[in-house]
Amino acid sequence: MELPRYTGRPPRALNATRAKALGRAALSLVLLGLAVGCSGPSGVEGDILDRETFISVYVDLRLLAMDNRAQEIHPIERDSILEAYGLHADDLVAFADSHGRDVRYMTELWADVEELINRALEPEPEPDTEDEDSVGRGP
What we know:
The chain has helices at 11-37, 51-67, 75-84, 89-99, 103-121. Helices cover 60% and strands 0% of the residues. α1 packs across α4 (89-99), α2 (51-67) runs antiparallel to α3 and α2 (51-67) crosses α5. The protein has five helices and no strands.
């Protein structure tokens, strides 16, 4: 006798999938930064992004990727987000190269990224359906 297969995913499994995808993306970015960092000086040491800008750009890129089934971003879409911030992909790599060896800094940064992504994915609360005519009136 065969057991029926469970095909649905509980919400925790979806969060685990998102966390794995975020972890893979973070690892990819760090590895890319290390690979570029090992190739010699980049010439952008004075123009490193600030933390908040990096987080904002990265969150926007990840949210866009999560909209796609393969969780990949088309280069045109990626470039349009970077252009909106006035940046290039090299700016993100330079940031990762500059801070990638500081484990505490990067751990806190990825925690902030994950928190912002989770907040963006949470459904908005339903507005109160209280009758406006009854508000503020006595018995």
